[in-house]
Design a protein that fits this description.
Helices cover 73% and strands 5% of the residues. The chain is built from five helices and two strands, in the order H-H-E-H-E-H-H. The chain has helices spanning 2-10, 12-46, 69-74, 82-121, 129-142; strands spanning 57-60, 78-80. A two-stranded antiparallel sheet has the order 1-2. Helix 2 (12-46) packs across helix 4 (82-121). The longest helix has 40 residues, at 82-121. 2% of the residues are buried.
Length: 143
């Protein structure tokens, strides 16, 4: 059973998946930083400094006027955090676009490599060994 498990782990698919998960986690951190640290401030600036994350409606309970969403949640009030949902949608769209651009680039690179392989395969074939031997035989027979 142990040897079967070792064979399973050593297969390429499992190792490829593990590498993909590790790289995916690192890529998620990069894209999340891109969205939170670079793109969201630009969106906020373009929209007049509006910060969606602190937009909410109090469903029940009391919350101090102008309190942040975190303070409203800590006070025990039931809040409808529509601003966080809007930011989650914006973040998703940005992340999906970045992933789309990455996949598009990878596909272009693969297509270019595939076209290079086709060019190599389409090179005109010279005479075969049998044809060359037949030509030599015919040339020697003429002499």
């Amino acid at each position: 059973m142990l040897s079967e498990f070792r064979d399973f782990i050593a297969k390429g698919n499992v190792m490829d998946m593990a590498v993909g998960i590790i790289i995916g986690a690192a890529f998620t951190a990069i894209v999340s930083s891109l969205v939170a640290d670079l793109i969201n401030p630009i969106i906020g600036l373009a929209m007049g400094g509006v910060d969606f994350t602190n937009m909410y409606a109090v469903l029940s309970g009391t919350v101090a006027e102008g309190a942040s969403l975190e303070a409203a949640r800590e006070s025990g009030a039931a809040v409808f955090a529509y601003g966080s949902f809007i930011m989650a949608i914006i973040n998703f769209l940005i992340i999906a676009f970045v992933v789309f651009m990455l996949v598009r680039y990878v596909n272009k690179v693969k297509d270019a490599a595939h076209k290079e392989d086709e060019v190599v395969e389409e090179a005109p074939a010279g005479p075969t060994e049998l044809e060359l031997l037949a030509e030599i035989r015919d040339a020697l027979a003429k002499k």
